[in-house]
Each structure stands twice: as C-alpha cells, then as structure tokens.
Amino acid sequence: MFIPVNLSNYYNNTGITSDQNIDEGNLTLFGSSLPLEGPFIQDVFYFENIPFYMNKKFKCDNLAMEGQEIEIRSLNVNKVHIVGNSTSGSYYDDIVFKDGNDQTITRKIKLSEFTLETPTFSENKLFYRFSKINNKRHLNLKGSLWKQTICFDKSIDLKTIILEDNPFIHIFGITIQQLMKGGEYNEF
User: Fold this and answer.
1) pLDDT band at 14 (very low <50, low <70, confident <90, very high)
2) CATH number of the domain to which 145 belongs
3) CB-based contacts of 79: which residues, under 8 Å, 6+ apart?
4) Does 186 have pLDDT greater than 70?
5) How many independent structural domains does the chain possess?
6) d(C-alpha 165, C-alpha 59), whole Å
7) CA torsion angle 99 174 120 48 (round to 10)
8) According to the model, what pLDDT value does residue 92 have?
9) What is the per-residue pLDDT across 44-56, written as a single tens digit (0 to 9) for each?
10) How far apart, in whole angstroms, are the C-alpha atoms of residue 12 and residue 21?
C-alpha cells in the first residue's frame, strides 16, 4: 500500500512560482524556481503508479534539508519514494530512518541538479521535466524533478525520517510503501 506523506508542516522554501509571483521564488540563491505546472496543479500526482502529494497550496512548497525530523508512524515499510532535486550542483547526503524501537538505518539520499536533463546519479529517475525555469531574468533553461527509491532489506516500523543539514537538497514529495501481510502490495 502507498501512503503519500503530507509535508506541509515541514516546508521551508518557495520553489514553485507562477508568472504572477515569480519574485517569491527561492529554490536557488539567485531566485529561480520551478513553474506551477504538472505535478503541482493536481491533488495527487502519479508516477509509476505511485501517488505523491505535491499540489501547490502554500507559499512554501518544498523542504530544503535543514535537519528536519519528519514523523511518519507507518508499519511494515519496505520502500520510501522521494521526489526532489538539488541546486548549485548534484548532491547526496545521509538520510536516517528511525524505527519504533529507536533503532536507526542510514542510507544516502542522492538528487541530481534541477537543470539537468539526465541524472547524475543512477538512483535517480526523471520524475518530471518542466517547460522552463522561472526567474526575474529570462533563463533559457528547463527544470527537472527526480525520484529516488530507498529500499530496506526487511520491512521496518518507520517512526521518523531524519534529514541532514544540506539546504542545496530540496524534497517536494515522499511516499511510503508498505508490504501487506503475505508480501502483497495494495493500491493507494
């Protein structure tokens, strides 16, 4: 079963703008942002039959990694699907998963640069290619979001996801995948 995570309580960055609020964009240090299209205008956006909550509803719409601890509380989790990108280069860092017994599993989150058309990291799949990048200056560039799937050797009772302090990595969506009894997956 897929469980899209509501990240709105953790948003700390404006990475999506329209032509009307282009000045509010701060995905990059120079005020660039992704345009309000595709996954940001649907309540639930599906990629590879996986649902993600990414609809632009608030001024802040993504989280730049700054040590957040995201409460999950899901049982029998075997995969975590993450959608995001990096700015000013392609970056990776640790991501920590804490289970119900406060045991931790550390993996690497790797997200390619947001202007690239092909990923830097083999773990990334192109999630969405945007028609442009918004900026006060005209830039002849297009933006990208990438999906990375983190798998566990055996399912865990996931309590918390802990992010490192790397504000160049931006997360727009997370979906938890649970293994049902008997090893079967159910739809969202």
Assistant:
1) very high
2) 2.60.120
3) 149, 150, 151, 152, 176, 177
4) no
5) 1
6) 22
7) 120
8) 98
9) 999 999 999 999 9
10) 17
